[in-house]
Amino acid sequence: MAELKNDRYLRALLKQPVDQTPVWMMRQAGRYLPEYRELRAKAGDFMSLCRDADFACEVTLQPLRRYDLDAAILFSDILTIPDAMGLGLRFETGEGPVFDRPITCLRDVEKIGIPDPEDELGYVMNAVRTIRKGLNGDVPLIGFSGSPWTLATYMIEGGTSKAFTKIKKMAFAEPKTLHLLLDKLADSVISYLNAQVAAGAQSLMIFDTWGGILSPRDYREFSLRYMAKIVDGLTRENEGRSVPVTLFTKNGGQWIEEIAATGCDAVGLDWTIDISDAKARVGDKVALQGNMDPSMLYASPERIGQEVQHILEQYGHDNTGHVFNLGHGIHLDVPPENAGAFIKAVNELSRPFHK
Amino acid sequence: MAELKNDRYLRALLKQPVDQTPVWMMRQAGRYLPEYRELRAKAGDFMSLCRDADFACEVTLQPLRRYDLDAAILFSDILTIPDAMGLGLRFETGEGPVFDRPITCLRDVEKIGIPDPEDELGYVMNAVRTIRKGLNGDVPLIGFSGSPWTLATYMIEGGTSKAFTKIKKMAFAEPKTLHLLLDKLADSVISYLNAQVAAGAQSLMIFDTWGGILSPRDYREFSLRYMAKIVDGLTRENEGRSVPVTLFTKNGGQWIEEIAATGCDAVGLDWTIDISDAKARVGDKVALQGNMDPSMLYASPERIGQEVQHILEQYGHDNTGHVFNLGHGIHLDVPPENAGAFIKAVNELSRPFHK
Predict the structure, then answer these.
(1) What pLDDT does B189 receive?
(2) Nearest to B166 by CA among B117, B103, B122
């Protein structure tokens, strides 16, 4: 493997000194980029794209050609595991992901196996290997998965949801069934992420998009517990370097101390919490990733720069351990030049915070 | 007016002793009740129903005939004010509320006037008067409004939204335009709620359904500030009694101290915060309303009873100042007997907490 030229992102996650705050954007490879839309128009359906290692590599690299980013993230979907479990994933226009065979009862859960990461999910590992080659050591590659709770919401609701009534019904009326599913998902995620590391992922992130719809007790029981199990089971060193792990629960600002206590290296923050408060609460335990409102990218470059400065100041001059990011994925209708203004602002404005 | 027979709800909001914890449910008059659906099927479109005082009275009273509730809430919609401002409200099947003429620019905001509560909104005041008569003093009547920020989201997005990109674009790129709109909305809400009190509402609630999608700074600037202005402008006494005011920001658990500091009487909580933590944080400043996950009503009566007991214990034996409720509106597919089990559990299990 080519030697890593820019390791700011990995160093910041481990709270080691860096010369400027590393930055990347959730969903940085995606629809807001015209070059992505162009390639996408020529290709087939969304999952076929994820299955094509060359396509996945090309779109992973696209934002890196435009912007001075400090990390690349595997182009894939969070629902690859449920798809590999045989639930029949489709993407309906305007409707998002749909499962043809959602989970409805204990019998459905019992039938599910742990997907083999080099068999049913081998296409993801091929993509990781291809992207690592394509990156040629420029920046580290982030591998990722959805959290067990988040995957389970899609598997039980049959797709996206507003009120999550089916999974909550199961959580309150048949908790054992749900726990069996979450445990199988945790084992699957461990095997999936470890295979990504073996294939070349240099850092891992777990997206708990829907943990924030739970009460504190239910979050601990149905989401955090399984993320902690995953953290315990992950390969944390490879190629002679640490493989840092970031946990991100959207709307999880109230629970960051407990998330930090799982043993992860970093906690991702959305924009509904002040990063200064978050830092005071987690202390030196973990690095923090975040946390600009993605909608700020609709404003002018000047306003974007002011917001970057504001967040850098909030994080403070004891600057180790901050990875700049949006608080959620970039919106698909953001002008690419505004994303550029954001990245540039972090690169330039963060240097005085690293003396 | 008939003398009030059951004032537990009003007393609890003022942190006065009661014999048992008062309980009502957000959206208690609504689609989960077969008698509501029956009446609704015979009648016209949703806004015509809201405009019919006899219909509004009948559906407001329906849940009180089934359950031992401690309050009634005006049957109406949160979007009556924007509708009265001339934005052309429609309800599309499966799509929710839609405005034919959403707000897009400063010019649109400048054209808007403050609706006269006894003219354009006179139908709401007629409903309040009719319901007060229909209640005959059994329980107090709650009047309500959406918060300025929440109303503005619908007015600018043109309906419901997922990412709220249009209003955030305005907040970050044209904050003055948005502030002008929010200020007009705050004035409108003050006039609207004071008219509800004059017509007979005995308590007021402001629903800030979408304040929780903002960063802490933006929440203060665009939502809380205008709710505080409203609290300052409200009639707080009528018919020789206090008219308590409750503020409810969904996903606002991180900001309850600041909400409490507005001068409101009570803070509504969703289920993403422990009510014990909330109580420790706000101290004696305000009463608290909440906070069972509405999805718990899918579970068995036994499980519902356990959850009620758990929340009562969390609130603790220093029990004054708790109004039991769901953390959000009741789901439309909840079995009515489960709602009954919930109300009964609060009535029975809460007595030992009030000695």
Answers:
(1) 98
(2) B103
CA dist A157 and A136 (Å) reads 41
A-interface mutation test, from B172, B210, B342, most A Cβ less than 10 A away: B172
| Chain mean position to CA B137 | 21
What is the average pLDDT score of chain A?
A: 95
Chain B nearest-CA distance from A237, in A, is: 35
Q: Domain boundaries in chain B?
A: 24-289
Please judge whether A272 and B254 are an interchain contact, meaning their C-beta atoms are less than 8 angstroms apart: yes
Average pLDDT along chain A, 355 residues, taken 10 residues at a time = 93 97 97 93 81 94 98 96 94 84 97 96 97 98 98 96 92 96 98 98 98 97 98 97 98 96 98 97 96 96 97 89 97 96 98 92
Bridge partner list, B248:
B207, B268
Is it true that domain B24-289 has CATH number 3.40.50.720?
Answer: no
Residue burial A252-272, b: 16+ Cβ < 10 Å; e: rest: bbbbbebbbebebbbbbbbbb
Q: Which two tokens stand for residue B39?
A: 């009446």
Closest CA to B278 of B244, B230, B339, B327: B327
Of the candidates B15, B89, B18, the one whose C-alpha atom is nearest the C-alpha of residue B50 is: B89
Indicate if A77 belongs to the active site. yes
What ipTM did this prediction achieve? 0.93
Within 8 A of A172 by CB-CB distance, chain B residues are 295-296, 298-299, 303
Q: Looking at beta carbons, which residues of chain B come within 8 Å of A215?
A: 271-272, 274, 293
Distance from the A320 Cα atom to the nearest Cα atom in chain B, whole angstroms: 23
Q: Confirm or reject CATH 3.20.20.210 for domain A8-353, answering yes or no.
A: yes
> Distance between CA atoms of A78 and A68, rounded to whole angstroms?
25
H-assigned helices in A52-137:
53-66, 80-84, 106-111, 122-135
Chain center to CA of B349: 25
CA B329 to each of CA A58, B28, B191: distance values in angstroms, whole numbers, following the listed order: 46, 8, 25
Burial group, residue B189, by CB count within 10 angstroms (0-12, 13-18, 19+): buried
Between the CA atoms of B302, B306, B311 and B315, what dihedral angle is there, to the nearest 10 degrees?
A: 130
